Q: What sequence folds into this?
């Protein structure tokens, strides 16, 4: 790094709550509980700053329809060349946010840092004793209540970009990661005004350019109002706490911000009728004002479930109305 | 993805096995990272359903050598360069058969680990098809048997030792790989990056044995 000035780090750590997570019995899949919510969210994802979710494959620019770049790191695409964000990538990003604003454990930890992670934040291991996020998204040996589909771009084509060189995280050299020898919290990168492009100096990548629109669905079952409300909050639907999703590679240099809008929610009034026909009756589809009212009702139910302090912090890091400029120096 | 060549089962012919072994041995000798071979194989797999898969593959490799922004260390370029060279030598003739190329490359990657970590001695590497000398497996069976017998006879009658000096005829030169013929029967191919340019086929040179195999055969020589 030499004498170059080091910019401040473009992330914040959201501390773990002081209280241990409350572990409860999950709703499970054995039946649709009448007092819980089931249905499908129809989402539109609009790219705010270029997104790159890597596949690990290299390809010729001409293979993926990107001009001017001979060779690049690819994103997943459908057979007809539409960009795709894997459902698993979406789920991971959304779960991380859900965990941070509820009193939950971590989903995955590495053995290397096991001893430095507070014991009550270790992933849930008992099927009958799950933290809030594990009850909704699943845990080891336990299927979650939400299913994510791949997000597919509305139109074919993609663009190319040059990803600036990123350095590895250095938890051992940086004290902020640990307090009293224990991990300090969860790390989130700021939503930034633009994605940096390294020109001739970076790694050539296939990207979803700004304003690219993806469509996807999330199916949910047996959720309580508070759980669905929290999911909707994470998707940026709480007007008091707007949030962007931050996803894929290059988060430190401004890539990966996505705005989510909910087009409609399908919520079957009668499950037997719903599964007896191919098309949902119009009365099951929530749109416009009814959709707004429904979302508000669920978000209201999150009081006491979401931790207000953590929500405020997360929202300030990912707030679309207070974006930060990506740092220019070495960091 | 139905009807793609990937779903056709390809039985490797003895010649193809030779190619896989040769590619693996040459790359191990050149100290190439096996993961990089897997990377180019992965590319071929991803375009194998296109009619021009073979030419895309060769174009991809030449770009890979050139695109320094995708090289992680200073060694990466060397790895890609030796992979490109060997694929051009051994697989160019199979350009229109990506399924077979994939099988050969897949096995070459597995064999690389075998030769590298299994401590398998590297022997004579068959030259690429179409070069001046055909590989043993392409000779008639009787001729192969006769040649093996000749080699065994020379080996049994000759006690080689490290440091021993011998006359050798340059039997073939391919890039920087030189095939020597010793005592009229034993052929040995090795890289001579510095000297290959100054040698010519048919020239008689002096070599010294630097390493022996367990069975007493010659593993490595150095050009004097």
A:
């Amino acid at each position: 790094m030499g004498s170059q000035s080091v910019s401040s780090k473009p992330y914040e750590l959201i501390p773990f709550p002081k209280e241990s997570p409350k572990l409860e019995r999950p709703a499970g899949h054995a039946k649709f509980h009448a007092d819980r919510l089931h249905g499908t969210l129809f989402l539109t994802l609009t790219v705010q700053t270029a997104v790159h979710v890597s596949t690990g494959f290299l390809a010729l620019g001409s293979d993926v329809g990107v001009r001017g770049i001979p060779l690049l790191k690819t994103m997943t695409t459908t057979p007809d060349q539409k960009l795709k964000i894997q459902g698993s990538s979406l789920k991971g990003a959304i779960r991380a946010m859900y965990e941070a604003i509820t009193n939950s454990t971590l989903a995955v930890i590495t053995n290397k840092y096991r001893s430095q992670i507070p014991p009550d934040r270790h992933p849930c291991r008992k099927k009958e004793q799950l933290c809030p996020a594990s009850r909704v998204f699943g845990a080891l040996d336990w299927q979650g209540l939400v299913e994510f589909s791949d997000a597919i771009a509305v139109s074919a084509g993609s663009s190319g970009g040059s990803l600036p060189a990123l350095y590895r995280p250095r938890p051992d050299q940086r004290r902020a990661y640990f307090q009293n020898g224990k991990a300090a919290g969860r790390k989130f990168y700021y939503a930034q005004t633009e994605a940096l492009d390294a020109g001739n100096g970076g790694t050539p990548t296939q990207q979803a350019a700004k304003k690219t629109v993806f469509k996807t669905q999330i199916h949910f079952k047996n959720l309580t109002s508070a759980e669905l409300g929290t999911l909707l909050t994470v998707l940026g639907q709480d007007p008091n706490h707007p949030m962007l999703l931050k996803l894929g590679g290059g988060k430190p240099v401004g890539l990966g911000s996505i705005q989510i809008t909910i087009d409609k929610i399908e919520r079957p009034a009668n499950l037997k009728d719903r599964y007896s026909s191919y098309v949902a009756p119009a009365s099951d589809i929530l749109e416009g004002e009814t959709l707004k009212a429904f979302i508000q009702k669920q978000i209201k139910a999150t009081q006491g479930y979401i931790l207000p302090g953590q929500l405020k912090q997360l929202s300030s890091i990912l707030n679309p109305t207070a974006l930060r400029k990506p740092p220019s120096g070495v960091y | 993805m139905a009807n793609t060549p990937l779903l056709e089962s390809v039985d490797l012919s003895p010649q193809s096995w030779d190619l896989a072994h040769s590619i693996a041995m040459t790359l191990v000798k050149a100290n190439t990272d096996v993961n990089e071979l897997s990377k180019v194989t992965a590319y071929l797999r991803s375009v194998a359903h296109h009619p021009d898969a073979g030419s895309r593959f060769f174009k991809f490799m030449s770009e890979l050598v050139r695109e320094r922004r995708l090289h992680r260390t200073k060694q990466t370029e060397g790895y890609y360069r030796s992979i490109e060279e060997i694929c051009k030598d051994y697989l160019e003739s199979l350009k229109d058969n990506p399924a077979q190329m994939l099988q050969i490359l897949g096995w070459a990657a597995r064999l690389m680990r075998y030769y590298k970590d299994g401590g398998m001695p590297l022997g004579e590497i068959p030259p690429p098809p179409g070069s001046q000398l055909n590989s043993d497996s392409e000779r008639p069976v009787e001729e192969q048997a006769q040649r093996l017998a000749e080699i065994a006879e020379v080996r049994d009658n000759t006690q080689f030792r490290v440091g021993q000096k011998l006359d050798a005829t340059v039997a073939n030169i391919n890039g920087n790989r030189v095939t020597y013929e010793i005592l009229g029967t034993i052929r040995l191919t090795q890289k001579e990056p510095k000297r290959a340019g100054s040698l010519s086929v048919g020239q008689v040179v002096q070599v010294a044995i630097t390493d022996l195999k367990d069975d007493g055969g010659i593993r490595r020589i150095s050009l004097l």
User: Anything to note?
Assistant: Chain A touches chain B at residues 56-60, 63, 70-71, 73, 162, 200-204 (CB under 8 Å). Residues 168 and 331 of chain A are 10 Å apart (CA to CA).
